[in-house]
Amino acid sequence: MPLSYLRRPLFLCLLAYIAVLCFLHSRGFFRPSPPEPLALYRRLNGVAVQGRLVSPLKEDSFGWKAFIQADTINSRPYPHKLQAYLPKGQDWTRLRPGMPVRLQGDLRRPRAPLNPGGFDEKTFLEDRGACAVMSVDELQVLGQLPWFWLPKAWAEAARQSMEGFFKKVLPKDEAHVFSGLCLGYKGPLRRDWNRAIQDAGTIHLIVPSGAKTAIVMLCVVFLATLCRIHILIRFLLSLSIGGFYTLMAGAEAPYTRAFWGGTALWVCLLSGRDSGAFQATVLAALLTLLWGPRELFSVGFQMTYAAVLGLVLAMPQIQAATQSLPPRPRGLARVAAISVIVQAMLWPIFANVFGRGSLAGVLANLLLVPASAPLMAAGFGAWLASPALPSGPLLALLARLFVRVCQAFASLPGAASDLSPMSPPAVVSYYFLAGAALVLPRWRASGALAAAGLLVLAGAAAARGLSRPAVSVLYLDLPSSQPALVRFADGRTWLVDPGSRAAAVLKALRQRRVSRLDRVVLTRAWPRPARRRLARGLSWREAVQVSAPWSFCAGAACFEFGGPEGPAVIERGSQNSIIHRRIISGSVEAVSDGRRAEVRPLCPPERPSWSAPWSSSTTRPSPRPDA
To answer: Of 174, 216, 359, 609, whose CB has the highest number of CB atoms within 10 Å?
Structure first.
């Protein structure tokens, strides 16, 4: 790809638009405001919501869920979007996007993580425009679908039909595998299978992926070409069936990217213009963000466009370098290059979102990416021929074979590794350096990108060194223990009382980019299973048993652990701790510069901490006596 494309007006407009969206996001412009009574209470019981179903149904370990655009809450106008969990044990497959519904149940605010590394439900839903979560007790459909919702409803009916077919002819987990392969909805897949597929680097084959839309559109073009159909009819068939599949799969960013990109390529082909992949990708991204600006902050959008941008930059050089190879080695080399480029472009997202990255994906994708199209064809063919063909045993065999291959690659030494999140400067520097490698052999551009990346990295390191406190103590909020991570300005790192929740402690330490400890300090017994579990993901020089309560001082601040009242931070000359554990929910960090200490809640405490029934006369609650 000529680098002059990066100066084209459409690309510059896209960059400017993304910059504006990022600025607005940082200022809270896209953050939805909850209804006033819900802003005062954590939970409201006995709420009646009337609105419209605006998303396909999805299933997870908690049951069926969907997004609802509320019109009224208890007959009062509140135009808010919320996520609803439907009652378990009932068949909800007849619900369609666009249906007007009435819900009865309990409403709560999304939860922020109690500790670093936990799932941030609050941010996840805010980036999708939802401000509340509803546990539904009763659901009633109020009327017919409006005509403009019919295409999406028909697509949802087709998806439910296909998923229902897989559940009918396959065991539960094999059905989830084929739903993921064909539709990108893997559902609550058993944990060991999900981990094996993730560690093999092939998770993209069973989650939303633009490759699925591309495969469908290419299959339509191939069959239409075999039937000698006119090129204009081929275009219309590819567009209509590809668009229907995009709606069927949920119209998420990876699918819309492939659909809009394929449409742009078709238009360029029919008009006789250069059908550049870069222009199609930029146009698809711009159309997606114009339709839904919040898509920019979704993981699916970031992953699909990061991967495609890397391929667009590097593949022309790779194709030229492998042109002299025989056909089969050439194809293998290009598939391997694609896998390496995609893994490299997605590595920061793996680190910041999933906390784990696969190194075996380069090998696994050589085999499974080419096999994904036949597997999709088998799933669609069996569904379309379901009344006449007993395809269950064959599909079950294919699903288990897919998982076995993933397990084989995931079991290789060093197949996957846990990753610590990357800071924003580190992400920017990483992509500058990755761009420098991808544009080779354009040495001048590569050198400029590499210099920019190193400059950002050096500036971030200098700023971090200047702002490092004398000591910081992170207190985790866990049910059976009170672990604390102590970090000193000279680089020493201690862990106090890890307790029995090793997995939660490891997540928190990984979030803080800690992989090695200088000392583990114990004021109480440390269960042996938890110690072994922690040792698998962390190393330390020494473990020291001390008597409780134990404390150390850094300048004017003293930090106490293992006391009857819990952890304490006491400034010299004072008798009281500045940590009030009774009114703070979630982990807190105490920072001292040697003269004074400051406590920062990592998850801001909610004002009230109890639930209340909804009332039209709900007023601001009075403070609790213990607050």
So the answer is: 216
